[in-house]
Amino acid sequence: xxxxxxxxxxxxxxxxxxxxxxxxxxxxxxxxxxxxxxxxxxxxxxxxxxxxxxxxxxxxxxxxxxxxxxxxxxxxxxxxxxxxxxxxxxxxxxxxxxxxxxxxxxxxxxxxxxxxxxxxxxxxxxxxxxxxxxxxxxxxxxxxxxxxxxxxxxxxxxxxxxxxxxxxxxxxxxxxxxxxxxxxxxxxxxxxxxxxxxxxxxxxxxxxxxxxxxxxxxxxxxxxxxxxxxxxxxxxxxxxxxxxxxxxxxxxxxxxxxxxxxxxxxxxxxxxxxxxxxxxxxxxxxxxxxxxxxxxxxxxxxxxxxxxxxxxxxxxxxxxxxxxxxxxxxxxxxxxx
Length: 337
Ligand SMILES: Cc1cc2nc3c(=O)[nH]c(=O)nc-3n(C[C@H](O)[C@H](O)[C@H](O)COP(=O)(O)OP(=O)(O)OC[C@H]3O[C@@H](n4cnc5c(N)ncnc54)[C@H](O)[C@@H]3O)c2cc1C
Fold this sequence. Notes:
The protein is α/β, with parallel strands linked by helices.
């Protein structure tokens, strides 16, 4: 009761990064609230994930077991998680703003008749005073870019429990706890909760597209914008990336112009990256883009406009043409190979 509960996703590689990011953030919020942090894992043989979740600070891991839950499916997952939340009555429930989390969390919110903030980029705890002057203590501030994306919006839902939010992948760090706990695993037999109608939709075949690149975890990212000028020029970014062991990302304008694939888009409606080095080539630096890269350690901006907003983010600015500058960098680096 009154704990924080986190929904943890798994895939064929094990616990997804977002699950550990959420447990890490949840652990910090729980310390502020002096409450526990619990995790839910759903599927087959999910008990194997408990020790990893304890290492990240989970107090209790609820393992909802059933062979039929091996693959994600909306209705049965909503059924079993809603049942557990009704029983546990957490004050906060968090899920990733992944394809699964975006499908699952709003349906659970509807079942529990509480609000939800989708796609948060930060969470904080603070007191909240409403329009009538009533103060609610220790409320979850759910922070996300607003719909136009020029500002951050803070949303609070002080009157309903749980306070629910989905969190974007990659914006929170995943750090094992300095004081790992000997937590408790609670195994839940889902067969007692599931109903036949939950399986009205059955999975005939699962086709999973391989991710074309691993931008999210890349240490070096070269991102191209509209100023790169053409798909052909974008190829130069890939050549430079090969020399720097980097991944290539893009802005929405570059994607819309057909220079780059949508899956490489960085920003509010794309990926969030946190590389050690971010090289922005021909990118103006609109907030909808920078919200996806502003945690990069070092930023280099290559732009013909010395006053481009991206240059304010940059540790190093090269004022020059994208094609010319990238070609020179390739020549320099190639000669040192
Ligand atoms: C709701 C919403 C969500 C959005 N989500 C995203 C998102 O997730 N990600 C995203 O990126 N955008 C997003 N956008 C779009 C965003 O507002 C910007 O339009 C976009 O980021 C601009 O991309 P850009 O910097 O490549 O292009 P531009 O703004 O056109 O900038 C091009 C830059 O290239 C420079 N340049 C031009 N020629 C050269 C040259 N030869 N050499 C070097 N530099 C040159 C220019 O000086 C300029 O700074 C969103 C917008 C909205 C409204």
